[in-house]
């Protein structure tokens, strides 16, 4: 589904930081991949490269066989198939909840008002906030906002969902509600790539865990293997600190 | 009770408050009064009664005879009267109101003699004409300025060199020279060229007003570009990422997501810019556009009521800018509720 071949990415702000060093990976249809690692390890950059929010310096990413760094590729059609959920929700504050979930359906999918509102209401019910459809983002709690953000991404009927630390900005009591929505999504067979610090979530739903540090993939494997007998020393150290 | 009182307590004391208000009016009265007194000292004679005719006046209609002849007949025609004057080239009929003529049947009139005089309709005075021109020019320039500013602002924050560099060049060139010079260039350089080109190809020339509007809107547009840019940059980058990652293109994201949010930050400096535009339009008198300032100057050359007309001119500008500022404040309140 997604093939990542030897991507490099260096930032120069303010100093030279090697965010990705020779990262390759393959994400299969229906797979739930959890990317973990200490902060600054390049896991968010890796995720953001998958829909070209960041452009890799060298290397190639194929999404359904389409090279997304090729200038001839229409990135908008690729992105329409990939939902993204951000750490800071990034809901559109000037639009109602219904408007947030409908606007891309209108502009990108060109759905009729009736269709897109039906879809939006169905998804809002699914994430448990159907009653807030006419409220504005500022009236919602963090957990509710993040569930709206998930509904907004799902409204485009994406083939894959990217989660960039979706629970890191939430109060502890709200993390559960967001993780429940994500677990339900995984059970439905959605292809997912999640950058997260929620080890419980990784253990429960991941098909594969990738551990990154200093821009490199250090170790990857099934959650059982990864959490019970990690091989690399850096992985062991990280797991010791976090668990 | 504590004997010490804060300034706030002191002002909430009703007597102190009323004294303070009275003090304000006293200061205003003193300033205006001393200016007025000083003008009397230098023997200026105020004639405010001469001023209303610069807003509107009743036109006096004068009817002159086209030819020499004799008044053949005076007959009523509705509530007016027909004067039939016979001469060498045959009879001619003039329809005039009652009591506007001083002729009897059989009188002789010479060619060019005034046969009747009566008040016609109301006509707009110089100041009204000037005010209207200023309003019209400011309004059109504001609209074009906003369009230029939004297009330029979006181009200014884009990554495409052709858009970004064009926008930067536009802003830097326009902000780097005085508006008066730009108006002169627009009219005497571009205007002359364009009008000659048009004339050579058999078209009519363009009115100086349009060169004035072009100069003003291009000037204002350059400042609006920077205001729009600041507004766009004040929006969290996550907003455009969220929009773009859902498949919207750059312009859809700008139009539907970023600009509506940026409007809140843009409005206050925009108000200042358009208030400046109204005031700057006073420079257009230099290219013979009869806007409010030029109309005032013309009024003064005929009436010599220098003090009255300039003060009035300032008050009229104040009325326009104050109304605009109130309107923008209303818009700010409306966008703030969401």
What does this structure look like?
The complex is a heterodimer of chains A (243) and B (338). With 243 residues, chain A is an alpha/beta fold. Chain A is 37% helix and 25% strand. Chain A has helices spanning 43-50, 75-80, 97-107, 113-126, 142-154, 172-187, 199-205, 223-228, 233-242; strands at 2-11, 17-27, 32-36, 58-63, 66-67, 82-85, 160-164, 191-195, 208-213, 216-221. In chain A, strand 7, helix 6 (172-187) and strand 8 (191-195) form a beta-alpha-beta unit. Chain B is 62% helix and 14% strand. Chain B is built from ten helices and six strands, in the order ααββββββαααααααα. Chain B has helices spanning 7-12, 14-41, 126-156, 161-175, 179-200, 208-233, 237-245, 250-280, 292-303, 306-336, and strands at 56-64, 69-77, 80-87, 90-97, 108-109, 114-124. In chain B, strands 4-3-2-5 form a four-stranded antiparallel sheet, with no helix packed on it. A two-stranded antiparallel sheet of chain B has the order 1-6. In chain B, strand 3 (80-87) and strand 4 (90-97) form a beta hairpin. The longest helix of chain B has 31 residues, at 126-156. The interface between A and B is medium-sized, with 25 and 18 residues.
Main attributes?
heterodimer; A: 243 residues; alpha/beta; six-stranded mixed β-sheet; four-stranded antiparallel β-sheet; 10 strands; 37% helix; globular; B: 338 residues; alpha+beta; two-stranded antiparallel ribbon; 6 strands
